[in-house]
Amino acid sequence: MRTLVLNAGYEPLAVVSFKRALVLVMNDKATIVQADAGHPVRSATGLWERPSVILLTRYVRIPRTRPAPVSRQGVLRRDARRCCYCGLTANTIDHVLPRSRGGRDSWENLVACCLRCNNAKGDQTPAEVGWSMLFTPTVPHGGAWAVRGVEQPLRDWDAYLVPAA
Fold it and tell me: Which residues form the HNH nuclease domain (predicted)?
C-alpha cells in the first residue's frame, strides 16, 4: 500500500509507504486527507485509518528548476499510452528522428507507439513514410511529473494529480 504525500499547498511531493505516512501523521507532521476505510491498521494499543493521501502541516520548499528526466514509462504516461501515428494502444516508444540519423533521447523526439507502427516505420521519419503525427511531443510540465512513484497512481489520487499534471 502506497500513500501520496501532498505539500501544505496541496501539490504532490512524493509517494511513500503507508507505514511512513502513518508515522508522519502520528508525529503531527501530516494529516490524513483521504483514507482507505476498508483496511485499518491495528496494533496492540489502537486502531488507525490506513492513509491513502496525506497533507503535510508545514510547507516544504522543493526546487523545480530541472525538467523531468526522460524515461520509457514517462513517455507512455505523457502520451496516455496511445500511438502517436494510429491512435491505438501503445506499448513501445519510437524516435521521431531515428537514432541512426542523430535523433536524441529527448521529450521532443520520443513518442508512444504501437508495435505495428514502430516496425512499419523502421529507420525512417514520419514524413518519409507519409504519416502524420496525431500530436506534437513536448516536455511535460507540472509538479506531478517530478514526483517519483506516480507512474502507477491509485484512483484515490486522481483529484490531487490532475491539477498538477
Answer: 70-119
pLDDT in tens, 72-118: 888 998 898 999 999 999 999 999 999 999 999 999 999 999 999 99
Residue from 69, 26, 66, 28 nearest 49 by CA: 26
- Quote the Cα angle for 83-80-97, to 5°: 45
Name the class of domain 72-129.
Answer: mainly alpha
Question: How far from 9 is each of 12, 27, 29, 57, 105, CA to CA, in Å?
Answer: 9, 20, 14, 10, 33
pTM of the model: 0.62
Grid cell locating 60: 516544504
Q: How far apart are CA 88 and CA 114, in angstroms?
A: 7
Mean pLDDT of the 136-152 span: 72
